[in-house]
Structures are given as C-alpha cells and as structure tokens.
C-alpha cells in the first residue's frame, strides 16, 4: 500500500515568486484573490497516494454454509456511563411524527469509544463460513486455524548451487579431490535440489574448480563444515505447525504460506452484508445534473469503497424520500437482509429527520448523539439483535462515522479488534481550538520539514472538496482545549485508512 508523502510542501505554500519571497495563501488571501488561489491549487494539485484496496475487490463466493462464531464478543451488560438507553424490546415511547421532537441529550452523549463499545457489547454477529480458492482469498478472514498438512522441504535439500559431498570424507582434513568421480564421490546439487542420501553436505559451486578429468579442486584454505549448504527437512514448515489462526486477515504472504502448507482452498468467514439506505428528498443519483435544491447522493460511493476495503459488502437501497412510512419500510427490509443497517441522513433536528426515531421505535438499545464533532447527531441502535446506525448526512460526518464506528463494527463482525492507527508527534503550524462541549476531530494536512512533521488545518477558503482531498491526518482535540501554534501534538496519520 502506498504511503502518503509527508515531505511534500503543503499545497498552500506558493512556489517562490519574483523577489524570492513566499506568498501567504491563507484564508484572507484566498477569498480576496480567488483566481490566484484557483491557479495555486491547480499548480499544486497532486492526488494523495491514497491507499487503494488493500484487499481484493470482488471475490469468488460460494454459498455460505455453516454458522460459526456465534459467541458474544463482549459482555452484554457492560455498564456505560453518560448515555440514555432503551434496553427492553420495543419499549421506546412512540414519538410524535415530527423529527423536531428528536432532541439528543448532549450532556449525556457517549464518547466515540463508548459508542462503539455500546453497540459491540450488545451484538452477537451471525457468521457463516464458505470455502474459497487460495488465489481468491486476499483480504478474507480465516474461519478456522490452519495447520501445515506436511513438512517442507519434505527431505533435506541443497541450500546453494553446488556439489553434494560426504562429511566422512573430510574427517581427517581435506581429502584429495583431484581424482574424485562424479556420482561416486560427489553429486551435483543445485539450490532446492534433493540429492542421494549418501551425501550430507553441499559445497557452493564458487568454491569448486571442476577439473578436465572429472575430479575437482577446492581452495587450499577451504574450511569444510559438516551438513553445511543444506536446508533441513521441515525448515520452511513442519507438519502440523500452526500457519494461521481463525480471525486472521489473509495477506499475499499468508496466502503463499498456506498454499505451501497444502491449503489449495481456505475456509473463510462470509463477508458481512451492510444495508445502506440513503434518505432525503433533496438527493439525486450520481450522474444526474443537480437542479436548485438538489444534492448528489455520493455517500454510497464513498462508503461502498470503504466497506470493500474492509471486507464487507454493501446492499445499496435506492434513495428513500423523507416519508416516514417509506423510511420505516426500507429500514425493515434492510433489517431482514443485512448484518448491519446504515440509514444515512435525517439524523438531526430537521422537520423531516425521522430516521433516528424510526430506529428508536424498533430498538432494544438506542442512544442518540456522540460527544464529538463532526458527526455528532449519530443514532446508535440495536434492532433485531443487529447494529442499526443512523449516520449523519454530510459527507465529512459520514466519513468519520465510517472511520471510528462502521470500520470497528466490520472488524467486530470478524472477531477482530481495531488496529491502532499510527500516531506521531507533529508541530502545529496553526492553533487548534476544541469545541466547548465536544471532542473536535480536527482534519489536518501534515508534511515534513527538515525531518520534522508539521501539521495544520487546510486553509480557510478551500472548498470542502479541496479540504477532503488534502487532509492526511487527524487530531482529536478534547472539549474546551486550545492548542497553540508551535505546540507539539499527537496526530493520527491517515495513510492506512482511506477515510474520505
Ligand atoms: N438546528 C440544528 N441543525 C443541525 C444540527 C443541530 O444540532 N441543530 N446538527 C447539524 C449537524 S452537526 C449535522 S452532522 C447535520 C446532520 O444532518 P442529517 O443527518 O439530519 O442529514 P440531512 O439533514 O438529511 O442532510 C444533511 C446534508 O447531508 C447531505 N446528504 C445526506 N445524505 C447524503 C448522501 N447519501 N450523499 C451525499 N450527501 C448527503 C444532504 O443533502 C444535506 O446537504 O445536521 C446539522 N443540522
Ligand atoms: O456533527 Mo456535524 O458537525 O455537521 O457533522
């Protein structure tokens, strides 16, 4: 996977101009000189080397057969502070049919880790297994431990291109090899070759001069070592050795190791199905030229790609208008088809924001809102034993929900815990202000200057598209905290997750 190059100049650093100075292209300049900014942005445009598909794309899928891994992942009764919840089936009070009544309780909202834990601890994923050819298993998650079915090499082989000899011939010092006969005193044995059992060591060919009469000469100073130049039986793998565990994600190297161990096909966990329901009267499909008041439904494009990277399948619904009955019907259909349901948009306080209350009505667990922005009005529910999440509509909010929540759910489905993202200290080039009551997930552009990592928000005045394209790091700024320019802070580099 390509890593982003943090040594590049940030895109708002103008190239040297006449007089040798650098122009500042911060917000003021950008708004006053939109054309200059446009040119600048074009000049420095370089798509980040985003991580594209660590995993294979579509993979062969045989019908899923057996149910597996049905044990709960965490204790179901994990006590979680600071959130309101409904724990009894269908006891949610029926709300008025207006989203305006849907007020999430900010003070008691969950933090991001609490929210993830709240869902995972109440969810027992229904996993099934299937068998796929090893060549088609990239990114799949093993359903069982896999042991080597044989040793490799089966018998010792030569480790070098050379000649196989008997160590007994060297017991009393260097033998007279000038009259040696091929096949009797030595045998050709190249790297990986088996050779007759009467020989037990291999001398690399560069130490051997083959004489015209068939004998050979070794250098005077040659030091023979018994059983040198060989690979022992089972030195690559031994029969019965554990090669890979249930829950491991298959990488190219792991695939080759399993293939070497006799696994021409492997049992893997069927990919989780995630139903995605885009909602909103204003939305039109990709490829439609938007009219006034319309917005293009693009979150499915982003989320489908994220799901595929993480080994999940999207069941995409058509755009559902903000009509309570239609939204409810889509949610019910999604619950019948998928392991996880994502309802997108309509999560906040708008007059047609029904989705969180529709989930709440159906939920055995429900919590609305997290103590972090962007993405704060997220609806978190367990319905029919499945996670059902009302992800906020704006692209950034949806991308962040994918980053900290949905990706965690996909890993939890597979029985995996989240791989911690790389954090590095960086010098802030601009202040970062926490929000009064929320963790602020600050999007940053990080770059290296003389071996030191620097980070700053993308300049004001960028379009959101420019901002999203350039952002390559996060910093979580705690509520009420102000970080000053020049301060060193821990940032999370986004080179392993294509979050937006
Ligand atoms: N009075 C208040 N207004 C808002 C609040 C608040 O607390 N009080 N919260 C704001 C925050 S924070 C967020 S985040 C958003 C959440 O919005 P919704 O989840 O209700 O989403 P919508 O209103 O349906 O849409 C918002 C925006 O996102 C676009 N969108 C929606 N779905 C998609 C999609 N699939 N692809 C692309 N874009 C999508 C939609 O067109 C809107 O532009 O609420 C704030 N308001
Ligand atoms: O919570 Mo939001 O800040 O508009 O994404």
UniProtKB/TrEMBL annotation:
According to the UniProt record, where is the region Disordered? 1-65
InterPro entries hit by this protein: MoaB/Mog-like_dom_sf, MoaB/Mog_dom, MoeA-like, MoeA_C_domain_IV, MoeA_C_domain_IV_sf, MoeA_linker/N, MoeA_linker/N_sf
Originating species: Ellagibacter isourolithinifaciens
Protein family membership: Belongs to the MoeA family.
Where do the MoaB/Mog domain residues begin and end? 275-412
| Cofactor(s) required for function per UniProt | Mg(2+)
Which Gene3D superfamilies does its entry note? Answer: MoaB/Mog-like domain, MoeA, C-terminal, domain IV, Molybdopterin biosynthesis moea protein, domain 2, Molybdopterin biosynthesis moea protein, domain 3
Q: What is its EC number?
A: 2.10.1.1
Keywords linked to the UniProt accession: Magnesium, Metal-binding, Molybdenum, Molybdenum cofactor biosynthesis, Transferase
Q: Enumerate composition-biased segments (Basic and acidic residues).
A: 1-11
Entries under CDD domains matching the protein = MoeA
Give GO terms for biological process.
Mo-molybdopterin cofactor biosynthetic process
Q: Does the keyword DNA-binding apply?
A: no
Could you identify this protein by its name? Molybdopterin molybdenumtransferase
Catalytic activity of the protein: adenylyl-molybdopterin + molybdate = Mo-molybdopterin + AMP + H(+)
Quote the cellular component terms of the Gene Ontology held in the record.
cytosol
Q: Which pathway does the database say it acts in? A: Cofactor biosynthesis; molybdopterin biosynthesis
Give residue spans, biased composition: Basic residues: 19-54
What this chain does, per the entry, is described as: Catalyzes the insertion of molybdate into adenylated molybdopterin with the concomitant release of AMP.
Keyword presence, Lipid biosynthesis = no
Under the GO molecular function aspect, what terms does this record hold?
metal ion binding; molybdopterin molybdotransferase activity
């Amino acid at each position: 996977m390509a890593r982003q190059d943090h040594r590049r100049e940030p895109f708002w650093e103008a190239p040297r101009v006449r007089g040798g100075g650098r122009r500042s292209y911060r917000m003021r300049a950008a708004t006053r000189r939109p054309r200059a900014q446009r040119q600048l942005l074009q000049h420095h445009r370089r798509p980040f080397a985003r991580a594209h598909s660590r995993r294979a794309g579509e993979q062969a899928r045989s019908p899923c057969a057996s149910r597996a891994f049905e044990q709960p992942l965490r204790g179901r009764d994990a006590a979680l502070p600071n959130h309101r919840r409904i724990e009894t089936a269908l006891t949610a009070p029926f709300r008025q049919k207006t989203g305006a009544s849907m007020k999430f309780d900010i003070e008691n909202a969950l933090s991001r880790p609490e929210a993830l834990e709240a869902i995972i601890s109440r969810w027992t994923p229904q996993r099934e297994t299937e068998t796929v050819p090893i060549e088609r298993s990239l990114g799949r998650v093993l359903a069982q431990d896999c042991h080597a079915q044989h040793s490799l090499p089966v018998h010792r082989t030569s480790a070098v291109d050379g000649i196989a000899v008997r160590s007994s011939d060297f017991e009393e010092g260097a033998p007279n090899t000038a009259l040696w006969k091929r096949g009797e005193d030595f045998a050709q044995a190249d790297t990986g070759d088996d050779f007759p059992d009467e020989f037990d060591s291999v001398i690399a060919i560069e130490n051997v001069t083959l004489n015209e009469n068939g004998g050979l000469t070794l250098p005077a100073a040659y030091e023979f070592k018994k059983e040198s130049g060989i690979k022992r039986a089972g030195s690559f793998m031994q029969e019965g050795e554990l090669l890979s565990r249930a829950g491991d994600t298959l990488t190219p190297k792991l695939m080759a190791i399993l293939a070497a161990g006799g696994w021409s096909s492997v049992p893997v966990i069927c990919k989780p199905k995630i139903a995605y329901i885009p909602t909103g009267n204003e939305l039109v499909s990709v490829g439609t030229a938007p009219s006034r008041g319309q917005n293009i439904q693009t979150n499915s494009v982003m989320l489908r790609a994220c799901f595929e990277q993480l080994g999940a399948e999207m069941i995409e619904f058509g755009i559902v208008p903000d009509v309570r009955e239609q939204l409810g019907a889509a949610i019910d259909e999604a619950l019948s088809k998928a392991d996880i349901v994502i309802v997108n948009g309509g999560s906040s306080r708008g007059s047609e924001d029904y989705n969180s209350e529709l989930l709440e009505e159906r939920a055995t667990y429900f919590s609305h809102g997290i103590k972090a922005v962007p993405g704060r009005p997220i609806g978190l529910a367990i319905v029919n034993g499945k996670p059902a999440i009302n992800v906020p509509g704006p692209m950034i909010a949806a991308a962040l929900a994918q980053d900290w929540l949905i990706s965690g759910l996909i890993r939890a489905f597979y029985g995996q815990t989240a791989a911690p993202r790389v954090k590095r200290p960086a010098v802030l080039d601009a202040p970062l202000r926490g929000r009064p009551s929320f963790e602020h997930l600050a999007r940053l552009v990080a770059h290296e200057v003389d071996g030191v990592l620097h980070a700053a928000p993308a300049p004001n005045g960028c379009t959101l598209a420019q901002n999203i394209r350039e952002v390559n790091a996060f910093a979580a700024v705690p509520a009420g905290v102000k970080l000053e320019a020049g301060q060193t802070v821990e940032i999370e580099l986004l080179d392993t997750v294509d979050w937006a």
